[in-house]
Design a protein that fits this description.
Two copies of one chain form a homodimer.
Chain A (H helix, E strand, L loop, with lengths): L11 E5 L3 H12 L3 E5 L3 H9 L3 E3 L11 E4 L4 H9 L13 E4 L5 H12 L4 E4 L2 E2 L2 H5 L3 E5 L3 H14 E6 L6 H29 L4 H9 L6 H12 L8 H18 L4 H18 L7 H9 L9
Parallel strand pairs in A: 1-2, 1-4, 2-3, 4-5, 5-6, 8-9
Antiparallel strand pairs in A: 7-8
Helix pairs in contact in A: 1-6, 7-9, 7-10, 7-11, 7-12, 8-9, 10-11
């Protein structure tokens, strides 16, 4: 162990992507005693992180080489690839033996490809999609669906412990974490669409929607998403906690995977069309429960409006 | 109060339809101290009921006039209409002031029509779809989604108390109970199809299905139906607890309602196609989790087989 890593010197981690999830994860790492570098293209996001005592960058700096652990919290596979192998890519800047923890939801085949390419550079890759919202990210209570080599897990452990309440270890190869996450996203995406189809159908029939919520959440028709998202509809509040376009992306990945594997997904396909319609109608950046507003627009159903 | 209803003489109820649900409901009524007449077209079902000490009939007998409460536990609206107004129909045999508790899942518009016709005969109608399986029916722990006049509720109360752990009182007119039940069935039907689409997609990718079940039931992709039905798939056991054809029927009602109300239901419509395919492929009377077997047949995915 070098002098710079004696017990009195904190270990260094980096977080790339300081959005609502990445920001909270970076704070969780700091709270666990790591020194944290944070990078984001948004100067506002970086300033917010610096004000919390972090070292901030609006590019992918050479300083990333100080980090033993790099956590990537970008939006998708394309951004992950750019972070690693783009013109400013960090694959050549990371120190040998460091680990890249990849959190973006993506096609498992792409996770396998990125992993193979990075491991060839002597750097570990942990396929580690996350679930849980911004609030749980800030508290270090995420759920992480992880897969990778034993060495990747070992190198990532201090960060996993700091960021997550629950880490599923899903196998010794990249791609398994991504595959589990996609199964979850298939279900989550269909359930939100079904919840919105159902609650607006209830509105169309003039049912008492608060009563519908009470009955369904206690019945066999319940889902985690119905219980979590329908309160937004009842409050008429579509402030984005998770946006429609997230599921345009994730159900799109499902379609691509299913087409490539010759596997029919009629439910997910129907759900994607509803998300696309909501996004096309201008609600792409609104809360995903906005699908209820789309059903209302299409049918003349009356949904609750937000109290002023 | 007439002599025949002194405290020492039990009140009389009748149950029409002694299938897995009706049989349990009849036993719950007996346990609560009511004298119970039971009718079913199946001699075996009637014999089973008689062996439990009930008075059984394979037709709709004139003795139904003894009952203050008639519970109808038939399959659908058409059978309910036959029970009431068919050639042997009981609408003209029931005693004035008695209540007809209608449990079949049906289009709310039909429930309103049947109710109006029966109430014109001086007989109360309680729109009272049930949920919960045969085990809860036998224990008197069903959930009932009920609507009807105050008089109908009052007359039905001893039976409701005997049969249900939870009675939702959803309004003072028939049709509301049916509408709430249909919202539940829309969600339940879509969630089973989504669960089967997801678990078989996981199998197609070679994931550890027990692990998928563990992760999903603890994640945002969970639903009551995923948690309840996927164990059948993991065990390879498609013994019918609830059959594919139940959802062919119920999602069919959703389609009819939605078409008549000009309300689009793309998720329910896609789900119905999957149930139809499973039924058409010969699995109509198997457990509704058989949709997973359909997905496997269509894609070459390997699902667990039943241990011998």
């Amino acid at each position: 162990m070098s002098v710079s890593h004696s017990v009195s010197t904190p270990r260094v981690a980096a977080v790339i992507g300081l959005g609502s999830m990445g920001f909270g994860m970076a704070l969780s790492l700091k709270r666990a005693g790591l020194e944290v570098l944070g990078a984001d293209v948004s100067p506002e996001a970086v300033a917010r992180f610096v004000s919390e005592g972090g070292r901030g960058f609006t590019n992918l700096p050479a300083e990333i080489g100080e980090a033993e652990i790099v956590v990537s919290v970008v939006v998708n596979a394309a951004q992950t690839e750019t972070v690693l192998f783009g013109p400013e890519g960090i694959a050549t800047k990371m120190r040998p033996g460091a680990v890249f923890i990849s959190s973006a939801t993506m096609d498992p085949a792409i996770a396998r490809r990125l992993s193979a390419r990075l491991e060839a550079n002597g750097i570990h890759y942990l396929d580690a999609p996350i679930s849980g919202g911004a609030a749980r990210a800030a508290k270090g209570e995420l759920t992480i669906m992880a897969s990778g080599t034993h060495a990747a897990f070992a190198a990532a452990r201090p960060a996993l412990d700091a960021m997550a309440a629950k880490v599923y270890e899903l196998g010794d190869a990249a791609g398994l974490g991504a595959a589990f996450k996609m199964i979850n996203q298939l279900l989550a995406g269909v359930h939100i669409a079904a919840a919105c189809e159902a609650i607006t159908f209830a509105a169309k029939q003039g049912l008492d929607l608060e009563k519908v919520y009470e009955v369904i959440t206690a019945s066999a028709g319940n889902s985690w998403m119905f219980e979590n998202r329908i309160p937004h509809v009842l409050a008429g509040d579509y402030t984005p906690l998770s946006a429609v376009d997230i599921f345009v992306k994730d159900l799109g990945i499902i379609q691509d995977m299913a087409r490539s594997e010759r596997y029919p997904v009629p439910l997910s396909a129907a759900a994607l069309q509803v998300y696309l319609a909501a996004s096309g109608a201008g609600m792409g950046r609104d809360d995903d429960s906005s699908l209820a507003r789309l059903y209302a627009q299409l049918s003349g159903a009356q949904l609750p409006e937000k109290a002023e």
